[in-house]
Amino acid sequence: MHWREKFRNGEFGIGGDLKYVQDGVGELRVVELPALKPTDRAQQEAGFEANTAPVSATMSPGMTKLILNVPAGETTYKLEDGQSTADLKKVKGVKLHQGHMIVGPYVQPKKGSNGSVATLKVQEGLWEHKRGHKVDGGERRKAEVRFKRRVEERKKERS
């Protein structure tokens, strides 16, 4: 029931929002786009140009970086028909580290890319939810384990 509810709400976990997946492997790439503030998105929809003010001192003026899922082997992201840069969203569960490296669980960087290109492969435990941890051997053995500890403590006190 828990899993059905998660999928109904659109909570797929890391890699669940990837569009371009080939043989269980999705490619992620850092892409620079024109920076848009939330107010600029509304202006762009109305037909105005994007804001060209600098985003930070370390990036190109008027540009921002996003992690996007691209088709395997592609070096750039091509917008689809009717899609604008304001529609693009970063891949959930991954983030940029030091401004250029893609990091996240189960993410593997590609060789020679300096961390700006990575793959996310379907593997065991990728969408697993851990529901707590066993304390004192679990519910069934808890009393037994705690009894043995008390006995050991009493023995140490006597000595």
Give a written overview of the molecule:
Helix content is 20%, strand content 21%. By secondary structure, it is of the alpha+beta class. The protein folds into two domains: 120 residues, no CATH class; 27 residues. It is elongated. The termini are far apart.
In a nutshell, what does this entry contain?
The chain is 20% helix and 21% strand. By secondary structure, the protein is of the alpha+beta class. The longest helix is centred in the C-terminal third of the chain and has 17 residues, at 142-158.
Helix/strand structural class: alpha+beta
Order of SSEs, N→C?
A: HEEHEEEEEH
Stretches where pLDDT falls below 50 for ≥5 residues?
50-57
Overall domain count: 2
N-to-C span: 54 Å
Helix content: 10-25%
Mean pLDDT: 77
Radius of gyration, in angstroms, nearest whole number: 24 Å
Shape: elongated
The helix tally amounts to 3
Instruction: Profile the largest sheet.
Output: 5 strands, antiparallel
Q: State which percent range the strand residues make up.
A: 15-25%
Number of beta-strand segments: 7
Q: Which properties best describe this structure?
A:
5-stranded antiparallel sheet; 21% strand; elongated; 7 strands; alpha+beta; 20% helix; 159 residues
Draw up the topology in text:
Elements lengths: L1 H7 L12 E2 L2 E10 L3 H8 L17 E8 L24 E3 L3 E3 L3 E3 L7 E5 L20 H17 L1
Antiparallel strand pairs: 1-2, 2-3, 2-7, 4-5, 6-7
